[in-house]
């Protein structure tokens, strides 16, 4: 049976912004029921390509757009505009066609936590995004284009959206998102937009990074073969991503060690252990909270009887639904808000830097260089050491010719990178990040994870990005409901394994009942006792070290052979065969290391329980 023809085709799309080429022969084909992830760096033209696909703008350099007659298409923009509407319901209703079901749209609004009576002028960014989602999901279109749908959404809303989109079997999805877990859950094919052109892979996002690395490694070999002159900045920007990812993989082991230390710190400790931890060096105390609580007016407490100890080098994630009190708890832990009850003791000689997620700390009139140097010459001090501003900019994926670019002309992702650059240049030993992953592309997220791994101080981070928390957090503090908070060692996935569930919405009918019967720590202790490694997991834990050692032995001669600079010219087939074998062995070794570390951490958690 022949496959159905595509509903939407973009062919050889060329588009420029002013005199700067953005799209140079890009293509996109969308068939019924497809699940496509559109991937690319910030500024690569993803949103522009989606706007051309939706018909919102026309390409100005050539190419064709075809939409099947009768096919319905809806598009979610990054910045929804609710102007001209008195309520959220009037905004959603305006997006419905004559044949669409208003009841479904009402149900979607309720599922997203809105009543329909909200005034658009009073909405937060997250609430505006929820209303826009109800507007585009309500008609159940043939094609749905979603540009960063998870931005400003909390974890319960992201989980709800995943379920809703997964259930729309006949609707074709094209997704732009920085949320790895979201893309892994929903995508079945990928379109990579890079340097104006597109490549397509008929696999889900879980395979993207391996595929991208292979493509870039092939390009790197071709670059050496043809001896083309590529500027150093572009070379590092493109081909350095593979090396950065491999370094991050190596740090998985370091993160496991930090999580083990965090598990030990969360256990009941005697006075001798506490005294040792408060001395200088690696184990010095950063924050100690005892029985802190906070309430506003007559409302129930947002924090109730919470205690924790944060040590130097810890990376603590705060997670919970919007309105749970994450910012309140963060402010109490950092000493900027006094608790109503209990005490917070901060370590000595703390130097705190905070990253503002709203980007309000940037002056749009200043240039990028002036923002980093404070307007004083071309030198920026990083950790007390002078560096030329252009060299420091390149660390954060900026090109030298952007040094004099006004901040107001930067994209959201570029402003995010600039805030990171400025924050990390300041001397500090406590870094407070509020939703740092918003507007960052996948390669910038890799960079941020690497920078946090190298950071010598302590990190407190509020985030709804599950994959990011898994990659950086040594523990997560979770809103349990009714003002209770619990500290779990490990990342987000570790927390779910210990807790038995993810983060629920505040208004969810199932949330209050479980919270009421467990004021004591007994349920937290009981959950790990029920867990045990399966026979298959036990076998893998025992067999994987030998497997990793064998792969290491197989990799060594391949690397040695490829180090011969004459091999390519002497025997191209052998070079290609060895290169492919090396890539396969290294991927297998990385997968084995990840599996072993995950199993080892699970075993330690079970034993700790």
Describe the protein in words.
The chain is of the alpha/beta class and 609 residues long. The protein has 4 domains: 8-213, P-loop containing nucleotide triphosphate hydrolases (Rossmann fold); 256-351 and 428-527, 3-Layer(aba) Sandwich (Rossmann fold), CATH 3.40.50; 360-427, no CATH class; 531-609, Orthogonal Bundle (Helix Hairpins), CATH 1.10.287. The protein has 21 helices and 20 strands. The strands form 5 sheets. The protein has a 6-stranded mixed beta sheet, with helices on both faces. Strands 14-17-18-12-19-20 form a 6-stranded mixed beta sheet, sandwiched between helices. A 3-stranded antiparallel beta sheet has the order 2-1-4, covered by helices on one side. β19 and β20 form a beta hairpin. α3 runs antiparallel to α4, α8 (232-266) crosses α14 (442-454) and α19 (535-562) runs antiparallel to α21. The chain starts with 7 loop residues before the first strand and ends with a helix.
CATH architecture of the largest domain: 3-Layer(aba) Sandwich
Q: Give the helix level as a range of percent.
A: 40-55%
Number of structural units classed as domains:
4
The biggest beta sheet, please?
6 strands, mixed
| Number of distinct beta strands | 20
Model regions low in confidence, pLDDT < 50 over at least 5 residues:
226-237, 268-283, 507-530
Which class of the largest domain in CATH terms?
Alpha Beta
């Amino acid at each position: 049976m022949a496959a159905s023809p595509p509903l939407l085709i973009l062919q050889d799309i060329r588009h420029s912004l002013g005199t700067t080429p953005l799209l140079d022969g890009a293509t996109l084909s969308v068939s019924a029921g497809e699940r496509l992830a559109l991937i690319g760096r910030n500024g690569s033209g993803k949103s522009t390509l989606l706007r051309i696909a939706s018909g919102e703008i026309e390409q100005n350099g050539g190419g064709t757009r075809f939409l099947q007659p009768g096919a319905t298409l809806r598009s979610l923009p990054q910045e929804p505009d609710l102007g001209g509407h008195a309520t959220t319901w009037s905004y959603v209703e305006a997006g419905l066609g004559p044949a669409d079901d208003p009841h479904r749209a009402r149900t979607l609004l309720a599922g997203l936590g809105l009543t329909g009576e909200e005034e658009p002028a009073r909405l937060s960014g997250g609430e505006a995004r929820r209303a826009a989602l109800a507007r585009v999901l309500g008609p159940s279109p043939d094609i749905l284009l979603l540009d960063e749908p998870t931005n400003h959404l909390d974890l319960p809303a992201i989980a709800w959206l995943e379920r809703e989109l997964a259930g729309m079997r006949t609707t074709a999805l094209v997704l732009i998102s920085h949320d790895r877990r979201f893309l892994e859950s929903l995508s079945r094919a990928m379109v990579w937009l890079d340097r104006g052109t597109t490549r397509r892979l008929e696999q889900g996002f879980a395979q993207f990074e391996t595929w991208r690395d292979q493509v870039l490694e092939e390009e790197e070999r071709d670059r050496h073969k043809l001896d083309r002159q590529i500027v150093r900045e572009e070379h590092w920007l493109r081909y350095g991503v593979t090396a950065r990812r491999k370094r991050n993989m190596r740090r998985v082991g370091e993160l496991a060690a930090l999580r083990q230390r965090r598990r030990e710190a969360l256990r009941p400790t005697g006075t001798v252990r506490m005294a040792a931890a408060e001395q200088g060096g690696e184990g010095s105390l950063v924050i100690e909270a005892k029985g802190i609580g906070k309430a506003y007016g007559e409302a129930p407490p947002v924090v109730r009887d919470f205690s924790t100890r944060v040590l130097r080098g810890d990376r603590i994630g705060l997670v919970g639904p919007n309105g749970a009190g994450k910012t309140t708890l963060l402010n109490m832990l950092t000493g900027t808000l006094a608790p109503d009850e209990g005490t917070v003791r901060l370590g000595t000689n703390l130097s705190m830097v905070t990253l503002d997620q709203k980007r309000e700390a940037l002056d749009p009139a200043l240039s990028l260089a002036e923002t980093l140097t404070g307007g004083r010459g071309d030198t920026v001090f990083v950790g007390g050491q002078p560096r030329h501003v252009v060299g420091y900019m390149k660390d954060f994926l900026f090109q030298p010719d952007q040094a004099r670019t006004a901040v107001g002309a930067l994209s959201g992702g570029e402003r995010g990178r600039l805030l990171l650059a400025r924050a990390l240049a300041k001397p500090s030993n406590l870094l407070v990040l509020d939703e740092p992953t918003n507007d960052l592309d996948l390669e910038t997220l890799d960079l941020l994870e690497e920078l946090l791994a190298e950071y010598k101080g302590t990190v407190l981070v509020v985030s709804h990005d599950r994959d990011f928390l898994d990659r950086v957090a040594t523990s997560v503090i979770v809103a349990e409901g009714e003002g209770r908070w619990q500290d779990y060692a490990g990342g987000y996935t570790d927390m779910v394994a210990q807790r038995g569930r993810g983060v629920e919405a505040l208004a969810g009918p199932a949330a209050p009942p479980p919270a009421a019967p467990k004021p004591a720590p007994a349920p937290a202790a009981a959950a790990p006792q029920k867990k045990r490694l399966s026979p298959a997991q036990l076998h893998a834990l025992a067999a994987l070290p030998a497997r990793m050692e064998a792969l290491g032995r197989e990799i060594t001669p391949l690397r040695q052979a490829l180090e011969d600079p004459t091999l390519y010219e002497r025997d191209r087939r052998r070079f290609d065969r060895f290169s492919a074998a090396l890539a396969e062995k290294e991927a297998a070794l990385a997968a084995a290391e990840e599996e072993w570390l995950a199993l080892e951490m699970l075993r330690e958690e079970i034993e700790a329980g």
